[in-house]
Structures are given as structure tokens and as C-alpha cells.
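Researcher: I'm preparing a figure for a lab meeting and need a structural model of a single chain. I don't have an experimental structure, so a prediction will have to do for now. The sequence is pasted below. Please return the structure as C-alpha cells so I can convert it later.
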Amino acid sequence: MGMHLATLSAPSAVQAGTPPGLMPSPVDRLPVRPTRRRYPLTEFLRASPLLRSDIAFNSPGLPLTLTLRLRDGWGLAIPRAVVYIWHHDACGWTFDAADDELGAVTMMRGVQFTDAHGAVQFRTVYPGRYGDGSVPVYVQVYFSDGRHVVSRTDACLQLPARSEALGGRLLAPPVGPGQRKPRFDTEHEVALIEVAPVHDDPFTEGLRADVVLNVALVQLPASH
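Model: Understood. Here is the structure written out cell by cell.
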């Protein structure tokens, strides 16, 4: 983990009056905004959910392998970004097996660093379907200048409740009565991303989904 912390960074743009890593956002890219303050990187990660790719543990439900790939304004991979996701399970509840019984009810959540190809992968279970038909998975991506977290982008992935690609198979059962959707704890608008049809995953006997997130980050040539 120490090696990751020492090298974590994000592409940055040199622009007057604009924090590192920020560029005007085209409509087809996720907007990036500065964080409320510059969080020291080690402090930020210490306060984050567990660094893990398996956020399902042994929760009941249909296994889902979710791969996210980050691309910048030039279509290039964004390495070493911090990706945080969370959602409810198929029943509308989530249980954190790493916690004690009194604090067990919590969001299914986890954090990963994007690799050299800008990719992260999470193993989870397929979320449940809410009264409005939505099947949400929430994503926050954080960027740093190597020492401080300086900017972020947010999105809500809308998974299909039924897959025509799998013969009309119902993927997301209704959640329990009275269960609310996870709240996205921000005051700004969140981009909604319709996820392409999911596919069978023979390795897990579940499903897989591969999502590309185009982010309004632009890598500029280093000035001399």
C-alpha cells in the first residue's frame, strides 16, 4: 500500500485560475470539480472505506463483477485515481462482514486504485430494484497532485433491471418494503450513466459489466 500512496497522482492541466486536474467539461464527459479543501492524501485514505475489491463477502445474491475504466479528454487511460463505489444488496440491506455485529448494517462499499490501464474491478452482488425501477451503483473518483486530494468526479451507474441480452432474464428483485435508495451525499447534480447490457460470467456463475467513464481531465505536454 505504501508504494501506491507514494505515487498516487492524476493528469493535470496548467490553466490560470483552475485547480490542478480541472478542464472545462464537454457534455459527453463527467465534470470534475475541486474538493472543498485540499485533503492530505494519507489522511484522506485513512478515513476512506477499506481498500478492497471484494465488497460482497458472503452476501446472498447474484454475483456481479463490475469493471470501470477511466479515460481522459484525449481518450487515454487515467492511472492511480482513487475509485470509491457503494450500493445496497438485492434485499435493500448491506452487511459488512469485517465489522462487529452492532455495526454490521452498512453500505456495501470499497475503494480501489486504477491500474496503468485506468481500470478497477469490484466483485459484488447484483443490487435490488427500487420502486421507480432504478438499480443504482454510486461512484466517486478522486484525483490528487501526489500529496493532496484536489478534485473529484461523481456518477450514478444505472444497471438494467432486466436483460434482453440474456433472454429477458430478471436481474434485480424488488428490495424490501420501506427500504430507501442509497443517498448520494452531495449537493450537486450527479451524472446518470446507463450501463450497457450485462453479460453472463462463467467464472463466477453470475454476471459481469464493463463500464467506461470518460472524465473531463486533459493531459497537456510538460512545458519547458
